[in-house]
Structure formats: structure tokens, C-alpha cells
Amino acid sequence: MKYIARIARIDLDREVSDIIEIEDSLLRKYIGGVGLAAKIIWDETSADTLPFSPENRLMFMIGPVTGKVPQSSRATICGLAPANDAWGETFMGGTWGAEFAGTGLSGVIIYGRAKKPVYLYVKDDEIQIKDAAQVWGKDTFKTNDILRSVTDERASVAAIGQAGENQ
Q1: How many other C-beta atoms can be found within 10 angstroms of the C-beta atom of residue 97?
Q2: d(CA 131, CA 111)
Q3: What is the pLDDT along the chain (167 residues), one digit of tens a residue?
Q4: CB 3.0-4.6 Å disulfide test: which of 47, 99, 100, 130 passes with 156?
Q5: Whether the Cβ atoms of residue 17 and residue 127 lie closer than 8 Å to each other
């Protein structure tokens, strides 16, 4: 079976997004969300790229079976980390990964620097960059409630919270 990953690329500087397709041969060489994210970091950044620079890539990725078989809802967040100025990855469970798989995407690559606080709303092939003023400074619980009320009551939210806002 041929596997094609569809990845959304979000340029916060220009406030645009596009979707790219990554073919089976590359996906077999760089297995899963972490493998593909590592390849993207290698290709799109340099040794001089700093974690908080617009050139860094923040990636939310899922693997090829996430959301397709029972109990497969893991997702990873990868990029250059401020703790070590090098590769960083973390994993999350819950429902976000499986819900994200329902969009038809296998990942989101975020780069650039927004002019103001924003959030991404992803539903199917539609990706919107929206003003986050209403959730800025709120804790993750309140952010979750607000975003679900203005988008979709069943939405899964991945929020950075106040610590993320303050880097």
C-alpha cells in the first residue's frame, strides 16, 4: 500500500498556509512523525538557527497509523529546543492525535513570526490563521473553553498556555 503524508506548512510572517505531499519513498526512510520532523529540521534549518528565531520549525506530527487503529492517538511536537539549542521532541496522548488524523493531514510545520498572537484552526483541508487576542494570557483550560465555543464544541485544542506565551 502506498502511503502519502500530507503536511500543512504555516508561514506566520506572510500569514499563509499550503499543503505539501510527501511520497512513500521518503516516508519509508524517515519513519513516523519524529523521523520526518528530524529530516525537515535537517533540511530547513542550519547550525546557526536559534530556537526562538523565525527560521526554526515547530512541528506537530503524527505517525502513519495514528487515528487509524484502536488506541493510536499519540502525537509529537518537535523543533529546535531552547533548553539545549538543539533537537527537542515531546509526545502527547489523549485524543488530539486521532482527531488531527481526521483532518487528512499528518503534520503541521509552523515557522516565521506572527505580528500579533494567533491560533491555527484546522478543519479538513481548511487552515485558518486567526487572532488570538481573546485567549492571550488565559490558562489552557480557559483557552480550551473559549476556542471550542468560537470554532467547534468538539474541537481538540493544543494550547501553549501562559508559560509558552512568555517563552
Answers
A1: 24
A2: 17
A3: 567 789 999 999 999 999 999 888 888 899 889 999 999 999 999 999 999 999 999 999 998 888 888 888 899 999 999 999 899 999 998 889 999 998 999 999 999 999 999 999 998 878 999 999 999 999 999 999 999 999 999 999 999 989 889 88
A4: 99
A5: yes
Q: How far apart are CA 141 and CA 33, in angstroms?
A: 27
Answer yes or no: are the C-beta atoms of 11 and 111 closer than 8 Å. yes
Grid coordinates 512523525 are at which residue?
33
Backbone CA torsion sign across 101, 104, 106, 110: negative
CA dihedral 66, 142, 148, 156 (to 10 degrees): 0
Residue indicated by cell numbers 490563521? 129
Cβ atoms of residues 33 and 65 within 8 Å: no
pTM over 0.70: yes
Residues belonging to the chain: 167
Which residues touch 130 (CB under 8 Å, ≥6 apart)?
118, 119, 120, 121
Strands 107-111 and 5-11: parallel
Inter-CA distances, 121 with 74, 88, 130, Å: 20, 24, 7
